[in-house]
Specification:
The protein has five helices and two strands. The protein has about 180 residues and is mainly alpha-helical. Among the domains are: about 35 residues; about 90 residues. A hairpin with a 4-residue loop joins strand 1 and strand 2. The longest helix has about 40 residues.
Length: about 180
Amino acid sequence: MPASRYTAEQRTEALRIYEAEGPTAVKDQLGIPKQTVMSWAKKAGVRTVRTARTREATEARAVDLKASRQELTALLLDDAHRLRKQLWEPARLVNFGGKDNTLAEVTLDEPLFVDKKNILSAVGIAVDRVIKLEAVDKTGEESGAAVDKWLAMMSGGLRGSSALGGESPPGSVPSVDVDPGV
């Protein structure tokens, strides 16, 4: 096995910086490649802590995406309303073609049945997408609690606790404490 290019002190310092600030900080401060320090961290079981700046940027992006979804939801509802109004408004039928390439045009009191069917289909799709977009935000707000409950249950922290209504989930196996040192 070849000798390491880095001393034990350099590794320790690199892992300390990695844990507090991430791999880019290690590269900038000590000149150790990101992949190298990430490999050391993986072997040592060290995880980097997300910096406050990264966390704030992630939260800001989530807020921006939610606002964008809400805007799209409002626009889709407007579209659905405009489409639905077309069901009862005069409709213009246009036909172009034939052997002489003639243009024929007629105005009807309202669209043909097949056109009404297509309009209602488009309205239904728009409304369905609105419902799905609203569900994304609703589950996004609740998902943190659900994930926390699941993680606690998986790690044995909920054994029959109130988070599951005092019961274990159906089909679950009773938990057993295992000593990892054995």
